[in-house]
Design brief:
Layout lengths: L4 E4 L9 H10 L5 E6 L11 H7 L7 E6 L7 H7 L3 E4 L7 H10 L3 E6 L17 E5 L15 H13 L5 E5 L6 H8 L3 E4 L1 H5 L5 H9 L2
Parallel strand pairs: 1-8, 2-3, 3-4, 4-5, 5-6, 6-7, 7-8
């Protein structure tokens, strides 16, 4: 099995010192940094935009895994690319022309992710699976950290893994929302190979980030 990668979400970090939070994540063994961008329109919450990402870029060489929960997303893709995003993940509902948005991300030399809300089917993005780098399967309704994992999404992860294996396509399967030390095993067994986590990494074991990252990675 491919090594399980951990993408900690800075949403659960201290926003007054995100630079040092990112350093702690890097020292703790994070494989990339998950940045949740929310617009108060596509999701009912607001977070950060390109200027913050740009100023965080100097704190680490780890890839920035930028999860855009904004609509319409297309016109902002270049701003996030310029700010230093490495992976740009968008929701299919957030763009008028998904193919154009995928092409734009690729033309900027960035990795493309497509995210599926709990109620969004694989069919919505199936014809693009050959062209993208990862599928971000939401295991909560996007908008807030600290929510409860929706276990019925496990079937979707299994189906996605099946399509990936049968068609021999190379996209990563990333999961996001409510991941903890119990359901990590379930999502890994279902086929996920990148785990996003905010609350579990920053708050468990008195904030022992290194330990929490190791525990999430292990079966
Ligand atoms: C939810 C975000 C998630 C979230 C994960 O909309 O996309 O990345 O911050 O946080 P936890 O691990 O606390 O559910
Ligand atoms: Zn996210």
């Amino acid at each position: 099995m491919k090594k399980i990668q951990i993408s900690p979400s800075i949403l659960a970090g201290d926003f007054s010192m995100l630079g040092s939070e990112i350093k702690k994540l890097e020292d703790g063994g994070a494989d990339m940094i998950h940045v949740d961008v929310m617009d108060g329109h596509f999701v009912p919450n607001l977070t950060i935009g390109p200027p913050v990402i740009k100023s965080l870029r100097k704190y680490t060489n780890l890839p920035f895994d930028v999860h855009l929960m904004i609509s319409p997303v297309h016109k902002y893709i270049k701003n996030f690319s310029d700010a230093g995003a490495d992976i740009i993940t968008i929701h299919p509902e957030a763009t008028k022309n998904l193919k154009d948005s995928i092409e734009l991300i690729k033309s900027l030399g960035k990795k493309v992710g497509l995210s599926l809300n709990p109620e969004t089917s694989i069919e919505t993005i199936e014809k693009y699976l050959q062209d993208i780098n990862l599928v971000l399967v939401m295991t909560v309704h996007p908008g807030f950290g600290g929510q409860k994992f929706i276990s019925k999404v496990l079937d979707k992860i299994k189906n996605l893994k099946k399509i990936k294996d049968e068609k021999k396509i190379n996209f990563e399967i990333e999961v996001d929302g409510g991941i903890n030390f119990e359901n990590n095993k379930l999502v890994i067994q279902a086929g996920a190979n990148i785990l996003v986590s905010g609350t579990t990494i920053f708050k468990n074991n008195n904030g022992d980030i290194k330990k929490n990252i190791e525990l999430l990675r292990s079966l």
